[in-house]
């Protein structure tokens, strides 16, 4: 089985994430979306809300599993027997950052990182931008799947 892990904080899930997940799921037998837990980070949305956003967005996709994890991503990959890490790239800065992580992960384990470029109409969207829009009372509905829109 070709199992891949798509790790992130997903605070919140954006249309950029959604794009990578929808395209990435076609490449693997199973795609595990894993929300990393970092006690030092101050999240806008609770872990439970973030899990729900993702589960609702992909409820009709049987190849997608949603979970949480603590610790190193490569250790979690070993635990769930994932052979790949899926990552999305929006710009050259993302590539440089993700390349260093991918090389480190490869040095620590046999894990391969697969990069997908975010679709051109979504490359400007980031969770931090979405959080800023929300904090300032802006209309963020065009930046996230409808499962994230708080009614």
UniProtKB/TrEMBL annotation:
It comes from Flagellimonas chongwuensis. The gene is coaD. Signal peptide: none annotated. This is Phosphopantetheine adenylyltransferase. It is an enzyme of class 2 (transferase). Substrate binds at residues 9, 41, 73, 87. The keyword Nucleotidyltransferase applies. It catalyses: (R)-4'-phosphopantetheine + ATP + H(+) = 3'-dephospho-CoA + diphosphate. It is found in: Cytoplasm. Its main location: cytoplasm. The record marks 17 as: Transition state stabilizer. GO terms for molecular function: ATP binding; pantetheine-phosphate adenylyltransferase activity. Belongs to the bacterial CoaD family. Residues 5-132 form the Cytidyltransferase-like domain. HAMAP family: PPAT_bact.
